[in-house]
Amino acid sequence: MTLLSVVQMNSQNDIETNFIDVERMMQQSKANGASLIVFPENFLCFAAGKQRDTAEQFESLQQRLEALAHRYNMWMIAGTIPCPFRPNGMPVPDGRVRTTSLCISPEGTEARYDKIHLFDVQVSDGVGGYQESKNFEPGDNPIVVQTPFGQLGLMICYDLRFPELALTLRQRGANILTAPAAFTYTTGQKHWELLLQARAIDTQCHVLGAAQQGWHGEKRQTWGHAAATNSEGHVLARIEAEGLQHLTVDFDLVQQQHMRAAMPLMQHRRLLQY
User: What pTM, to 2 d.p., does this model score?
Assistant: First the structure.
């Protein structure tokens, strides 16, 4: 049995203040016995137009997060941080960056996932239209990471709407899907928890949905309600309160294996062409 923590934050544009909240959540999760902590999207800086400025600090921020993971002897999904270079080290062209989620163990960074699906949509909120592709370059490589407590399939926010990615992660061995997110208030209210449950049902994986909540500046409002589902799609815990919070849930790999054997969805899948 492993304990997994999921964080809800109201990150603003001050990195140092956000770091204080990150360490506080790690202290509390460690006290609860958690082996893994998942932070939301934009967890170190949530400020429109400052992606490039934050990206210039990527490597120093990564080092600070690695030091925290080592200090508290925990695995961490470091939400997302804008990164100015691709996994091969080449700079991202056209002044854009990548939305990068790091999987960090107590020994250091184990894997990097760059968000594949970019949020270019119209939403009836204070912002109205979102065009992530203007500032971000999409990734193209699904990532699964081996850990002592199971394999993690990494996703980010809008990725949750695409079952093909979740199924690819399951086919590559994932037991747990992590989903750092910053859902808008409008879209989160409609679909956030349903999507966590749907991806769990599709893949028979636990799904950990870390979330931003509240106002970020004058126009951007996020839904929050960080939550975790089990591998059958049942919501194990959700955060109803506002602001900085965390929850901790159980994960039993053996129990998951028994459930998958009883309903072997992957063996039953038929890829149809119409």
Answer: 0.96
